[in-house]
Amino acid sequence: MTDVPDVIFSECFCRDGLQHESAVVPVEAKVAMLNRIADCGFRRIEITSFAHPKYIPQFADAEAVLAAVRPRPGVLFKATCPNPAAVRRAQAARAAGRGPEEISFLVSASEGHTQKNLRRSREEQWANVAEMAALAGRDFTLVGSISVAFDCPFDGPIPPERVLEDAQRFVSLGVTRISIGDTIGSATPPRVRALVALLRDALPEATFIAHFHDSRGTGVANCVAALEAGLRHFDTALGGTGGHPSGIAYGEGFTGNVCTEDLATLFAAMGVDTGLDLDRLRAAGREAERLLGRTLYSRAIRIGETAHA
């Protein structure tokens, strides 16, 4: 791949999307889905998580999935690493012949969410992240994820300055790809534009990624606001799947990610080049529904053709 599209989508169905599912999807089905996703033209794809199987059984097969998915020129496959042991697993998978190109580390912008989601304090988690970043070294492209960047279900609104502080801490550790998470889907376009402007002005060397949830039906609008504010990287999931792990007891019903098919269709109608084959993308969305055995949240796969402005 040589031509760089206007925006880069990271397809999160096989990690963030599946972490919410109680039934474990077989390795063969995950591999087939990942190959189908790659055929759509994605430059970044979430492939798995190295979370401990005790906590997220869905990804007990992380090494097997990585070994079975063939590398793609110009495509970065990303795995989530919650602790140093996970980074060592990623390194071992690479040493065995097939590891991820990217790994991601997670912090929460609030103390309450950190305690609930990660079972430790923010400072303990930052020490954990610093250890992981040092351990990873130059073996991978590193991605830092900041959860509850707008509002926390336990602590309320998050000051934008705290998100900036977390982004600065990531950069100080050599992590310059930073995902901004609207974990409960409460952001609005004005808040998105303001936060993106603050972050980009303060850290021009960083690449910021919009990772928005669609809990209140505003995820696509927030992505457009992020685009208008200068962001060019978006995390999305087929069918609007995903959100927090199924064992985490918070949220207000639907917590899924922005739907890939819908956002890509909108961007195409706006004249924004996504680098994605929309026919193949909609077919992948239909396959995601078949795989999970239910109707998902995509509107675009119902219209049968690309929307036009």
Automatic annotation (TrEMBL):
Keywords: Lyase, Metal-binding. Gene3D superfamilies: Aldolase class I. Residues 7-282 form the Pyruvate carboxyltransferase domain. InterPro entries: Aldolase_TIM (IPR013785), HMGL (IPR043594), PYR_CT (IPR000891). GO terms for molecular function: lyase activity. Belongs to the HMG-CoA lyase family. NCBIfam families: PRK05692.1 (NF004283). This is Hydroxymethylglutaryl-CoA lyase. The lineage of its organism: Bacteria, Pseudomonadati, Pseudomonadota, Alphaproteobacteria, Acetobacterales.
